[in-house]
Each structure stands twice: as C-alpha cells, then as structure tokens.
Amino acid sequence: MNGSGTPDLDGPRDVIIRVATGLFGERGFPATSMRDIAREVGMLAGSLYAHIDGKETLLLEIIESGIAEYISEATAALAGMEDNEERLRALIRAHLDVVARGPRTTKIVFHQWRYLGEENQAVVRKRRDEYEEIFVEVVEAGVNDGSFAADLDVRITVRSILGALNWTPEWLRFDGADPIDVVARQLADTLVLGLSRR
C-alpha cells in the first residue's frame, strides 16, 4: 500500500530504482550505500540483492533509462519538421522538458556516469554518442542549407550546446515565475544565436 491506502503497483525493483535515483541525485553515488537504499525502501540490505546485483548495476540502469528518454523525446520532437533552426530549437526544448520531469535523474545521467567501471562507461558513451548524433545531424544540415554559419565546427558547436543543457538542473527553477516554455525559448535564443550566418 502507498500513503493514500491504495495498492502500490510498482514492483520491488521499480521502488529500489526510484529510491536509488533520489539518493544518487541528492547525495551522489559515492555517498550512497546499499544500506541507505535498503533503509529508504524498507527492507534489509541483504534483501536488495534478490532484486538487483549491486549499486553499480542500479547506476547503469538509471543512466541507460535516462539517456533512452532523451533520445526518445528528441526523435519525437523532430517528427515532421524541416526547418533546421526550428529543429534545433525543438531539440533544446525537448531536452529541457526531460530535465523538468526529472532534474535529479539528469544530474545522474550526465554527471555521475564516471563512477561506473570502464566496461559500463563504454556502454554509456555509446548511448551518449547516439544522442549527440541527433544534434550533429541537425546542425550539419543547417550548415549545408545555409541556416547556420558555414565555418562552424559542428562537433564543438553541438558539445557546447549539450554542455549548457546538461547543467540546467543546477540553476533552472521549475517552480519559478517563468514557465518552462519561456525558459526554453530564451535559452534556445541564446544558444542558436551563435550559429547564425556571419
């Protein structure tokens, strides 16, 4: 049962992942123990291993799921769009929409993946590269059709945009005076301005 007295439809693994996401996002991966997670879930630490084989597995699952959400939102945002400046703006808005739904998850996805072992880091790099390539394709297309400056270094441009977006959970106020669509438009104006033809 949850706090409202209705059945909790999440299985134990879902609850563990949700709790771990909150703790990793709040305290960071190194400062969170399996005992901490177990305490929040309401089970003995040893019982966690019936559902998950370790803390790094939890981190990897959270990160992979998070990146998949970004890729899904980005792909959906581009559907039916042709103007490359508007496509880039749509990607920026889609990214912020995901951040707004889960700022703690974003901090984990883009800042705590370095705590993974090398093999799991390689898995994450591959998925991050897939997300980056969505932006690269749009910026390259914009350079080719004259929407953006011909002398842009596409890779540096995309990584600069993503670097700015990935830090938004540190300063974006989701309960602030400006709704997310206003902030997204203002941020897109700032980021896209530097790509204009010179």
TrEMBL record:
It comes from the Bacteria. Residues 33-52 bind DNA. Residues 10-70 form the HTH tetR-type domain. Keywords: DNA-binding, Repressor, Transcription, Transcription regulation. One of its GO terms (molecular function) is DNA-binding transcription factor activity. InterPro entries: Homeodomain-like_sf (IPR009057), HTH-type_TetR-like_transc_reg (IPR050109), HTH_TetR (IPR001647), KstR2_TetR_C (IPR041490), Tet_transcr_reg_TetR-rel_C_sf (IPR036271). Signal peptide: none annotated. This is AcrR family transcriptional regulator. It comes from Nocardioides panzhihuensis. The lineage of its organism: Bacteria, Bacillati, Actinomycetota, Actinomycetes, Propionibacteriales.
